Recover the amino acids of this structure.
């Protein structure tokens, strides 16, 4: 896949091209251009830090949707070993928008469940663009209940703009499927850690997002609605998506401050797609650290802590900032 440049990243790309030109000129003509190369390298690093440290919520949404960003299966391959994937909800069919199965994390058995997008058109159609049908949530619940029987922790990876909103989903009761997941996840007798790795959109994300700990990657978002959907409802115009993204307080830092998430996972400069291995290692460290704390708790404490965690989310405002 060719490198994709977002609009706000263009100054960085221009400097990278200039730097490459100077390096090629120096090599092909045997010219000492070390001063120019050093100056450009320093300017490039400064520009990167300046741009990526001051991103707006809308720019972070764009990074969360970056087509080269690591998806659930990428992290499963990097973080876990001995992954054994399970299929089907035992009621209707398999939903490729949600993947899951048993795996090992540093030798410890866990159940991994997550939403999965595709890299190209063919795979996106197969994965339904990461938008699960009801059978996807029922499969996820089946796997989490298997984990409970096996007494192993559950790790979920969230990356979806939302559950599939089509007629087929309604016919098979998407609302009921998500609602049952919410109810049953609250009662799981094992530790549950949820990680938002890209998009965390609406009930589609929450359907596998009821955990003792909810983590979010630095350039991910988690919101009751997408910025485009919010803009269409409030202003009847998706052109206001950037304004909506700011009003929704959907960035990792905002969510941490509001107590919606419990921790922010650091990403490589420029986003997780710049360095899969580094991004996966940060997730691994965060999951292991939180899992260690949760495993000190009794079954009753785990269930109560999960319940109280979500009962404690009570922030609201009157909409005056919109």
């Amino acid at each position: 896949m060719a490198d994709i440049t977002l609009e706000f990243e263009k100054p960085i790309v221009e400097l990278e091209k200039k730097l490459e030109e100077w390096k090629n000129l120096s090599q092909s003509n045997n010219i000492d251009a070390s001063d120019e190369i050093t100056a450009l390298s320093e300017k490039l690093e400064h520009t990167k830090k300046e741009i990526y440290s001051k991103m707006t919520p809308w720019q972070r949404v764009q990074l969360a949707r970056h087509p080269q960003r690591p998806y659930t299966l990428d992290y499963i391959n990097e973080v876990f070993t001995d992954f054994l994937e399970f299929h089907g909800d035992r009621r209707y069919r398999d939903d490729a928008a949600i993947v899951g199965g048993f795996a090992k994390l540093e030798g410890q058995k866990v159940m991994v469940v997550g939403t999965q997008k595709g890299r190209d058109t063919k795979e996106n159609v197969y994965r339904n663009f990461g938008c699960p049908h009801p059978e996807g949530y029922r499969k996820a619940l089946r796997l989490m209940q298997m984990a409970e029987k096996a007494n192993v922790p559950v790790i979920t990876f969230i990356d979806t703009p939302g559950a599939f909103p089509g007629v087929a989903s309604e016919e098979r009761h998407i609302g009921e499927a998500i609602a049952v997941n919410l109810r049953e996840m609250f009662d799981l007798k094992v530790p549950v850690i949820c990680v938002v790795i890209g998009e965390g959109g609406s009930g589609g994300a929450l359907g596998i997002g009821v955990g003792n700990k909810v983590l979010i990657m630095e350039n991910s978002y988690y919101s009751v609605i997408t910025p485009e959907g919010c803009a269409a409802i409030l202003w009847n115009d998706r052109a206001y998506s950037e304004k909506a993204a700011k009003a929704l307080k959907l960035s990792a830092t905002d969510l941490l401050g509001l107590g919606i998430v419990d921790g922010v996972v650091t990403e490589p400069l420029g986003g997780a797609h710049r360095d899969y291995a580094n991004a996966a290692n940060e997730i691994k460290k965060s999951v292991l650290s939180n899992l260690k704390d949760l495993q000190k708790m009794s079954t009753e404490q785990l269930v109560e802590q999960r319940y109280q965690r979500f009962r404690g989310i009570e922030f609201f405002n009157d909409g005056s900032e919109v």
Residues 231 and 237 are 6 Å apart (CA to CA). The chain is about 50% helix and 15% strand. The longest helix spans residues 10-29. The mean pLDDT is 93.
